[in-house]
Structure formats: structure tokens, C-alpha cells
Amino acid sequence: MNPTNLANTAVFQKLRKHAEKAGKWSLKELFRNDPGRFPAMTLTAGGLFLDFSKNFLTKETLLLLLELAKECDLEKIRDRMFEGDKINTTEHRAVLHTALRAPRYEKVLVDGKNVIPDIQAVLDQMRRFSEKIHSGEWKGFTGKPITDIVNIGIGGSDVGPRMVCQAMRSFHIKELNVHFVANVDGHDLDMVLNRVRPETTLFIIASKTFTTLETMLNAHSARSWFLNHGTIRDIQKHFIAISTNREAVEKFGIHHDNLFPFWDWVGGRYSVWSAIGLPVVLAIGYNHFTEFLAGAHAMDVHFRYAPLASNMPVLLGLTGIWNRNFLGCTSVSVAPYLQDLVSFPRYLQQLEMESNGKQVQKNGEPVTYGSCPVIWGNVGTNGQHAYFQLLHQGTEIIPVDFIVALSPHHTLAKHHSALLANCFAQSEALMKGKTADQVRADLEASGMSPQEIETQIPQRTFPGNRPSNTILMNVLRPETLGALMALYEHKTFVQGVIWNINSFDQWGVELGKVLAQTIQKELENNISEEHDSSTSGLIALAKASRK
Ligand code: F6P
């Protein structure tokens, strides 16, 4: 059973004691003393290679972390997820994004019903629909084929498909432009509407609940814009929906034939594998989408069956637990050295922080140890010229996940060796640092005066000892991206299990939504509710500016 208070368990205490020793280690020395460190702390799965050797870990640390995983029943809870048990206990739902990428012949039961045939039926629907769009058989109200897709959604109904479409730029079907609108800020929709023509545009209204304020407002505004050009009957040619809420979709005026359903056991941030992935299918074609699913499935199989000690998501998750709970790191920076993964850190922010940004355990007890760290980052090498200064010499230790492909999609060979060199150099520099003696030797060689050298040394010294992971892939393709995303989904799962958190609800976003409704009424009507003086003052200023 998962212990009621993780921090009181014997293994947690052992890890704490062990961390006191680790505080005195030097990463450089760990490498010097163990020539087998790299092979022992690297592994391959799903076409990805993980090097976690540049972390403050020894074999003993790993054994203790694996003991912690056992103590928390990781294997049992993992199996329950794959088997369709209702592990999302606050919403009484199964958690089955893994079923969305399972092969046709698999059987996964929810309430005694095999969900695989329904999943495959929707995939077939997506294939047929995308073929009609790509071939030009699907026509807009003036008889022209569709040239622009506008996905209207937010959170999981936006971030995943948007990131994947961007990441798969090299696989795009050129004739089709795919746009994303998420923000309730009207500038977002306005910008896209200014670029597209109603007769050749297809709107996808993507919302699991079909009640999300931002999405519904954007959807209604898009519909009004469309109706300035087409008729109510033409809506069927230009609006489709992806949702679990059939009734609300039909009320909006979208025909049930144009609804791509999914199910309550697909969490928003885990939904790109479902019909929510339709923009991806339209952007890269159905076959590439199935490769994307297959890549994720390969990682699922590895996560489900590989022993914990050689299980990539488990080791990535446990390394994060070690950094967070025993070495005190409060944030993690993600640095894809891949321009096409520019939105990957943003995707991970929702995945990890909405899943594990919790302060209450599954049993209702408070969490008395750190849960999800802040996830942030940007593509390399851009980040190097912005915040890497803080990673190297700041007062916080921030572990970094470097992600890079060995081969690019372009032919600018020199660019790629520069990119790889920078990626590898950053992890080396973070680990090794630069000692005062090295700085002195360099400055002496440059001819600087001894007095100036002494004032410069503290500024130019790098402490080093800053941990990182490096994830390599041969080339960023649909299947490697699928595997990478599944790797992080399962890492998030592993950490949620250790923290005894329900990673699949998100009650924390509700309060702001409710308060926004009250304030919107105040802004639009002549009414005032009771607030603190700051909120009331801000509302008054906004009202005054509208007069
Ligand atoms: O931000 C809360 C949230 O519920 C996310 O989890 C979800 O992905 C997003 O809103 C959008 O929800 P929906 O798909 O129902 O519009």
C-alpha cells in the first residue's frame, strides 16, 4: 500500500541521510572514479537514448530510489492504470490514454466494456475525414476545397496538437494551413480570421466538456463571422467538433456526423492521441499520425514491462524525485536543442504542473514534502543567450533536461554540428564548472595584470556540479515524438505515485474560472459585487475606461 505519509517511511529517511553525503560529492569525481558510469547510467527505449549520468547519483542512490518506488506500489498502480481501473479517484474515472495508442487486437475493459473498438472506429472516422479534406472531396459552401483549418480549443485541447503540429513541420502536407486559436483575448481569433477566407476554412471546435468559456466564446465569434458570409446550412461544411459532450455540440449547431467523440477517461492534457489529434492528422496525414501513436505505444510497452531498474520513465521520474525531494531543487528547465520543439517546454508545463501541482494526497492528507517543481525552458541555443547565466552561476541549482536529435531534416551540416556541440558543451560546463585556478591560468595567459586577475576570479568562476539529463534521438519523426511525449507522461505518472497525488484531476483551475464569471457580469452590467479593495479598484478602472 502507498504509505500515508511518505516522509515518515524508513526508505525516505534513508534517502535523506544519503542526501547529506551527496551534498559533498563532486560530479566530476564521480565520473573520474567510475569509468563504467556512462554505460551504467544510460539506456535506450522506444528509439530514445537517455543519459542520466550527470546527476548526483550513485548505485546506492539508485537502489534506494527503486526501494522507494516499490514502497509506493509503483508497479501495482501502473498496472491498474493500463488495465482501466478508476485510478482518477476524485472524478471516478479510468485513465486510459495508453489505450488510445494500443493496437487493434488489444482488449482494455472499462466497466466491463472493451474500449478498443470504439477507439479504432474514431480513428477510422479521422482517416476518412482527413482523406476527404486532402483530396479536395470535402468542399466549402462555394464549392472550393478547404485550404485552412482553424482549431479552437484551450489547455489540452490546444497545447498538445499545437506542439505536435509545430514539431512535425517537416512532415506537413503543404496545401493545408493549420491555425490554432486558444486565448480569450480577441486578438488571437481576430489575427487568424484576418488571414483566412470563410469559403475555404474549416473550424474545429475542440473541447472535451464543450463548456470551457474561452473556447465557447471563440467558437461563437467564429460562427458569427462565418455567418456574415455563409448560411446556417453551410455551417455543416465549415464547423466540426471534437468533444465528449454530444448534446452541447448539437445545441451549438454542429451535426452529429461532424462530431469526433472521445471519452471521459481521456484527460485533457493526455488527449492528443484521441480525436483531439485531428489537426495533427490533417497537418501530417493519417499514416504519420499512426506512426506517432506507434512510437508512444512502444514507450508504453517498455514502461509496462521493463524492470524498474532499467525502465526509462521510472528512472527519469526517480531522478526528478531525488533532485526535488532530497537535493531541494524547486524547478526543472527543459532545453530542446531542436527548433521544431520550441513549444515542448510549454506542453510539459501543462502535463507536469497541472498533473502534479497539488498539495493534497489522494487520501486527503496534506503533502508534507515538495511536489511538482516549476517546469520551464526554451530551445537551445536561444536559452544560452538568455537565462543560462542563472543556470551556471545563479544561487539555485536547476536541473536541466537536454533533448537533441543526432540528425536534422535540413542539409545545413555545419549548423547541426554547432547545435550538437553547444548542447553537449552546456551539460559538460554545468557539471564541470571552472575552478579559480583554471580562471587564473587563462587570465595570466591573456596578459592581465595580477591585481585585475584577483578581482576577476570570483566573477569568472563557475561552481559546476549542476545536474542534467540528456535525451537523444536519431531524428525527430512522428514515432520518436510519440515516444518522447509518452516518456514524459509516464515520468509524470511515476512522480505522482511517489507523491501519492491524483495526477489526473485539476481542481485548482476552478476557483479562478468561477470568480471570472462574476467579474465579467460586473464589467458588462452596472452591478458591483463585494471584493477586496485591490480587485474592486481594478474593476472600477476597467469600467471607467469603457465609458
Ligand atoms: O485548464 C483546465 C482544463 O480543464 C484542462 O485540463 C483542459 O485541458 C482545458 O481546461 C480545456 O478543457 P476542455 O477541453 O473541456 O475545453
Automatic annotation (TrEMBL):
Coiled-coil regions, chain positions: none
Subcellular location: Cytoplasm
Gene3D superfamilies: 1.10.1390.10, Glucose-6-phosphate isomerase like protein, domain 1
Top class in the EC scheme: isomerase
Alphabetical keyword list: Cytoplasm, Gluconeogenesis, Glycolysis, Isomerase
InterPro entries: G6P_Isomerase, G6P_Isomerase_C, Phosphoglucose_isomerase_CS, SIS_dom_sf, SIS_PGI_1, SIS_PGI_2
EC number per UniProt: 5.3.1.9
Catalyses which reaction(s): alpha-D-glucose 6-phosphate = beta-D-fructose 6-phosphate
Pathway: Carbohydrate degradation; glycolysis; D-glyceraldehyde 3-phosphate and glycerone phosphate from D-glucose: step 2/4; Carbohydrate biosynthesis; gluconeogenesis
Active-site residues, record numbering mapped to chain: E354, H385, K513
GO MF term list: glucose-6-phosphate isomerase activity
NCBIfam families in the record: PRK00179.1
Sequence similarity: Belongs to the GPI family.
Biological function: Catalyzes the reversible isomerization of glucose-6-phosphate to fructose-6-phosphate.
Name of protein: Glucose-6-phosphate isomerase
Organism: Oxalobacter aliiformigenes
Gene this chain is encoded by: pgi
